[in-house]
Each structure stands twice: as structure tokens, then as C-alpha cells.
Amino acid sequence: MSVKENIKLILQKVYQISRKKETPRIWLQHLVCEASGFVPGQEIYIKLNEEDKEILIQNREFEEGDSESIHQVHVSSRINKVSGEARPLVDSARDSYASVISVQDKVEICVYSLGGYSRVVVRPLRFKLFNTETFETPSDERIRLLSIAAGAGIGTSYFRSTQYFTPVQEIEMDEDSAENLKLNYPNSFLFHGDLRDCNVVSKADVALVTLPCNEHSSLGDGNQGVFINLTLAAAKIIKAAEPRIVFFENVPAFYKTRAFTDLQALLIRDYPYWIGPVKLESHDFGSIAKRERSYSLAFRYQEDMMKFRVPSPPSKVRRKKLKEFLDSKETEHEWKSLEKWLASFNSKADKNNAWANRSTDLTFVDENATMIQCIPKRYRSHCASNTYVMNPDKQQWRFLTVTELRRIFGIPDDFKFSIHTPLWRIYEQIGQSACGRVFRAFANEIAAVFFEAMLRVPSPEKKDEDVLPFELDADGQLQLLMI
């Protein structure tokens, strides 16, 4: 089936075929089944197409084909431990599948939908290193946004909340984050799998690139992308999508690595104009939480780069107190002993622990605090680099709740977390996201470039040999970009 047909491609997942009693196994997990509209107990139809090397699964009978190649199965289920709800699964193994798929090989699962009709196509992974399949998406005349390494989709939601952007594709590897993306962006195309396996890309106007920072941050392993190189795959996807502007967000150390310079080198022919990296602190933009990140942008056209205004902190931003973000006083919380926490922390010095000398000035704060520390992925741990809320008598402390963190980060009200996701994982997803204030500032400035471009008198196109790569540094100085 071609993505050019009337039926819409809404999800692609890549995974490795397992076996069931030495037989190739089709294993459609919750994300695929729910995107297809399959429900537990429902009868679905499976057809083997050996000629096209495809296994077709759909929720209605096939109109044509050899009846011997078609069989029916019922959708099974598993009870989710968090929500208590039964979630659909399809588990089918047959010797005949071996004519299309092989154990341990990678396959792509494509979900197509049109009204109440859904079709799932299982086939060997179709991947060409130097050729990426692309498609145009229907637009509501907003700026089309592609999110690479999208996480749970919080960064994407900041762009959408400006009302200038429409998400058209998200790419994410983590299963629970992918489920959250499909929940929040049901009409956008989702690729769930390793970035390096993505070979179907939507055309876009802007690419939001938030590659994993754990290889580069001070809390990570420091490998700097040497052993897991995602930049080559990211460049392939960006070049295929052909966005007008590429927006990068990451920890400051990322931009000093070979991973970023390699990415620049791969994109420089199509994107010769760069801004940044620009280091910004979210607290300067009025956030109560610190979050130092660096941002960079790549442009196809020099006029766009020259018109872009790097966001600067508001000069008279009002500093809010923590109590403005806290839940109501009637809310019940789990309080912990401050004395026990301090005893554990002080014992680290006896063990020569590197964390023993950490400052605790912002570790425990009351409701009148106007600054708290950066909320990391591991916020639910007991660590001096986190910030906890003290009770009025300063004898007990508690974690900030998810609803409180939503207010602090500025996560839009219409953004949802899956009811099937454990609480600890939601904390991680928030900690891996970004400051809503800074993201919206960049999103608005990017949108302004598109509005200005609509009114601009077209300039004569320059030949490739006439184009020199330029960079606008953090001080606003224009210089030749040397890579």
C-alpha cells in the first residue's frame, strides 16, 4: 500500500520480530492496536500477501483475494497496572508468516486509517540510507512542525499553544512517550522506533530537534555521541523534510561536541545560515525554576536569519512566589522527615561521596521562595540538587506534585498525560522537557519570520557557488561559519 492512497498513514513502528515456538510472531502492542481502533474481543482479519511481501490486518473483511491466505483472530488484552483498564493486544504466530517476515529481522508496522476503517501493514523494514520517502500533509494553513526526538510531546505543545503551528510528525523511541504523543496529536504522523530506522518523513516548515542530552549533560555518561551517533540520522530526516528553519534545544555542552559540528557540516549546504548557540536561563524569563539551556537555529535563507530576533528576557518580569504554583491547602500530600533526609545527606561526607559538598540553599524552600533549582528527570530521588517544599514548621518536606510542575513549566492545560503511565514516569517526562516560557518566545519569533517572509519582496535566487555559510553569534556579530 502506498502512502499516496486516500487512506491516511497515522503511525509507523519499527521493531524486531520475535518467535513463538520457533514460528514468526506478529505482536501488536497497545499503541498500534489503539491507534487502529482495535478493542478487546473484536474479530479482525489477517491476509498474507506474498507477492508484495506484506501481512495485512484490518477491522473488516477483505473484498478480494484467495480465502486460503486469509484468517481471523480476536483481539486479546492485558490489564494496565496503573489505570486498571484492559488494553488491546494482537498476538499471532503462523508458519506461513515466514514467507514474509523472519525471526530477529526488523519489520515496519504501518497503521492507516480512514473513518471507521483501519488497516495495519506488517512488512520487512524498507530503509534506504540515502533516499527517504516523503509525503505532504493536509495543512490548516498554519506552520507545519516536525518534532525529532519528541519525548512526551511537551515541547511540541508549547509551539502549538502559540496558535501558529500545526504538528505534522513526531519521531520518538520510548513506548510510553510515543503513546503520549498519539494521545495529544492524533492527527499527526507518529514514527515510533529508533531514529536511525526512520525512512518515511512528512514535509514540514519547521523542525524542532531535541536530541537526547544524557550523553552530553553533567549528569550523563559523557560519551558525547561517540558510541551512539544519532546526528547522521537526524540530518537525513531534516534534509528529507526540507523545513525552512531548524530549531535546536539542548544542554550547553552538546554544542561543543563533534556530534553537533558533524550535524552542522551535513546540513551546511542546505542551511548555510546559523544563529547560536545562545545560552539562556529560564529564570531570567520569569520562570521560578532554573533551567540553563542553549538554542541554535539553522536557516535556508539569509533574509530569514537577518530578520530573526533572538528572544531576550523581559525587562520588568514579575517574580512569582512558589505559593502561586502550589496546590490548594486542602490537598493531601505525603510528607517526609527533614531530620532523616539531613542525616542521610551528612553521612555522605563519611563515605567520601562526591555529592557531600553540594549546597542545600535551594534544596528545601517554603512557599515564599522566588527561585527553585532545575527540575531534572530524576526529580523523585533524594538529592541536594533537587528542590522540595517544606511545611510551615520546617520539620517535614515533600515533592512538588505533577499539577504544580505543570504550572511551573507552563505546560498547556489541554496537554494530557496518558492514564496508563506510572506517576514516576510522568515526573521523568516533565524533567526531560523544556521551559514553556523560553520555548514560546522562540516559537513566536520563528512565526514572525514566516509572517515577514509573506510580505517580503522576493530577492533574486543565488546559485550554490555564490552562497557562503554565515553564523550570527551570541553577541549578534555576523561571521563566516567555518566547519
TrEMBL record:
Sorted UniProt keywords: Methyltransferase, Restriction system, S-adenosyl-L-methionine, Transferase
Gene3D superfamilies: DNA Methylase, subunit A, domain 2, Vaccinia Virus protein VP39
UniProt record, GO biological process: DNA restriction-modification system; methylation
Recorded family membership: Belongs to the class I-like SAM-binding methyltransferase superfamily. C5-methyltransferase family.
Active-site residues (renumbered): C213
Record carries keyword ATP-binding: no
Keyword S-adenosyl-L-methionine assigned: yes
Name recorded for this polypeptide: DNA (cytosine-5-)-methyltransferase
EC number(s) reported in the record: 2.1.1.37
Molecular function in Gene Ontology: DNA (cytosine-5-)-methyltransferase activity
Uppermost EC category: transferase
Originating organism: Paenibacillus oralis
